[in-house]
Amino acid sequence: MTSVSATDAPHVELSHVCMAFGERAVLRDLSCRFPRDRISVILGGSGSGKSTLLRTIGGLVRPQSGAVLVDGEDVTRLSESGLYRVRMKLGMMFQHGALLDSLTVFDNLAFPLREHTRLGKAAIADAVHQCLEAVGLQNVDGLLPGQLSGGMVKRVALARAIVREPVILLCDEPFSGLDPISARRIEALLVDINRNRGVTLIVVSHSIPSTMRMADHVVVMLPDGPVEGSPAELEASTDPRIIAFLSDGEDPSIAAPDDLPGTTATARSVS
Amino acid sequence: MIRPIQDLGWAVIRFVSDLGALAIFTLQVLRATIVPPWRVRLFVDELHKLGVLSLVIICVCGLAVGMVLGLQGYNTLVRFGAAESLGAVVGLSLVRELGPVLTALLATGRAGSATAAEIGTMVATEQLDGLRMMSVDPIDLVVTPKALAMIVVMPLLSALFIVCGLAGGYLVGVGLMGLDGGNYLASLQSAVDFHDDILGSLLKAVIFGVLVGLIATYRGYHAAPTSAGVSAATTSTVVVGSVSILIFDYFVTALWGV
Lengths: 271, 258
Description:
The complex is a heterodimer of chains A (271) and B (258). Chain A has 271 residues and is α/β, with parallel strands linked by helices. Chain A contains nine helices and twelve strands. In chain A, strand 7 (168-172), helix 6 and strand 8 form a beta-alpha-beta unit. In chain A, helix 3 crosses helix 4 (121-134), helix 3 (105-116) runs parallel beside helix 5 (150-162) and helix 4 packs across helix 5. The radius of gyration of chain A is 18 Å and the shape is globular. Chain B has helices at residues 2-34, 40-51, 55-77, 86-124, 127-133, 138-176, 181-191, 194-221, 227-256. Chain A binds chain B through residues 55, 58-60, 80, 83-85, 87-88, 90-92, 94, 96, 98-101, 111-112, 115-116, 164, and chain B through 125-127, 129-137.
């Protein structure tokens, strides 16, 4: 684990972002930074806006106000074609995989390469098999997503997210639904992608142990605003909500989803 | 007292904004049609799904409608001693109205609903978002091949429906009622004009293809990401598509005299 200082250049930066779905505010005046070439993990209770934050970074949802700088470009102001240009730098692993269900595993992974590169069939097959091997999958080329287990779908989704070698990798709950061995393998793979390929990782997770092992930087989404810091700083925190969150995995001050006030304000350092 | 007025106001706002969204969606499809990359392989796949897989239902329904027309037409014409005009009655009914309209209604029920459900499911399972994150425009990859295939397939299916209907009328009129086959075909040939009737019929089918293709893909693309949302998109494709076909049929007939 590498420590993160306040001066580390942000690769992704959110500034005063407000996001609501209808009447319900999910992100309220949210500001936080994700340092370049580091592993950032977003923690928070259910309904605290973690996945929405990830989708905002990917430009899949546009906030009502605020700026989202991805590699220096404000994705909230980009046209659809501008967004597609920025997304060439991004890879995203969705919580439920989002694999194309009419394509086989091989074709799912080969698809982005066929779309955006001039690689030949052999090179594409090599790249696909390398990624599948990296996530611990073999002999699944011809299977359809519907024939895979939930854990296998996750691993294929991660393989697809990295096959095009993104500079920023967004992962939504990469460990949920995985057996402990697969979860550790994915965790090791994410760390390897970050350390050896210099990819900035932004991971939404509920897994506190894996967060503490792999993260350089943690953002905890609390109702009155995010709290940022390194895992060591979080563990040393005297904030009762952080202590409760780290011990139970849930922030006791987070209300039920119906009366959630949304996540607000600028990220504070851990106290 | 105020509540119904408010509801009406919201309904009008929803309708107008829906219409605006459909217009933008249509322009996006048009742009994807003109600007490369062209997804020829996907387009051919869709032709197969929407067209080839609809052949049986179109042939069976066309034959059945032609047989009913033949029977009803014969029973009416024979009272006036004009049974030899059966070919003209069956031909004009099928070519001008029943062929394109019934084909469009059948295509809406079979292919339109399937298209809306397929795209809606892709929305609900985040497959379209997955494409966006891979810098692939779903309008270009998913929507446009389906909408274009519907436009191409509709006149072909309509023509097939008409041919099957004419055969059904022939079977009843000549095979069952004992009319002369030459008379049936001669009256058909003299009554149906290529320019006014055949081309007009194809024009209607193309317009219906545009309607069904756009409505089905639009409803699927804008489906709420839930199973209920997919179901609602499918239902509304069939309802809105069918009503639009009948309304447009009147206007095309009135304006172009088809």
